[in-house]
Amino acid sequence: MTAPQPLTEQATPRYRGLENRRPQRPPIPFVPDPDAVEAAGPVFGTADVGPFDADLTRQHPGEPIGERIVVAGRVLDGQGRPVRGQLLELWQANAAGRYVHRGDRHAAPLDPNFTGTGRCLTDDEGWYRFTTIRPGAYPLEECANTWRPAHLHFSVFGTAFTERLVTQMYFPGDPLLAYDPVLHAVPDPAARRSLVAAHDPALDEPMYALGYRWDIVLGSR
């Protein structure tokens, strides 16, 4: 079997995913009504985001399996100003590289004490913080002998449900980064580097978790 080669800008094919996941029709333009309810939300009060929503290691009776990590950073606008009160959602595979989803056919075990989803609101300085476990790699079904590096999925809502950024965070030093067609679908090398978090000793929890810093900078709008 031929070993996979590291991807380069010249040799990287455009990642398109599975055929049945691709849109079959052109997009429909959507212009929200400024007086409609979706233009004024989402609005989340303190009771809507629970105390354990941002700690994925404390959502079940037992301890999840895996390396515990803290992921924190700031959500900033294009001018570097903090974005307050933003809802962040996180979802991920477990330490074995398996999602709690019926569509995940990877032959890896589920963890009964890890669901892999969390959420939080940014504070007045734009800070967010999650405690979780480092996800495992998993094979990319549509690409032969290709494994996805460890990553976290993030969703950031704007002032309405029609304003949403979905992105991924990667871990520094992962040897699979050079082979990942999803990461290399981002054409700008600087933009790819911005998707990789940095280990931050200030975020480490002694004898418990390693800390990673990852800031999210939104567009000018």
Automatic annotation (TrEMBL):
Enzyme Commission number(s) from the entry: 1.13.11.3
TM annotation in the entry: none
UniProt region (Disordered), positions on chain: 1-29
PROSITE patterns (UniProt xref): INTRADIOL_DIOXYGENAS
GO molecular function, one term: protocatechuate 3,4-dioxygenase activity
Polar residues compositional bias, start-end: 1-11
InterPro entries assigned: Intradiol_dOase_C (IPR000627), Intradiol_dOase_core (IPR015889), Intradiol_RC_Dioxygenase (IPR050770), Protocat_dOase_b (IPR012785)
Domain of life: Bacteria
Any Gene Ontology biological process: 3,4-dihydroxybenzoate catabolic process
Domain Intradiol ring-cleavage dioxygenases: 71-99
Record key words, sorted: Dioxygenase, Oxidoreductase
Alphabetized NCBIfam families for the sequence: protocat_beta
Family: Belongs to the intradiol ring-cleavage dioxygenase family.
The protein's name in its UniProt record: Protocatechuate 3,4-dioxygenase subunit beta
Naturally occurring in which organism (per UniProt): Streptomyces morookaense
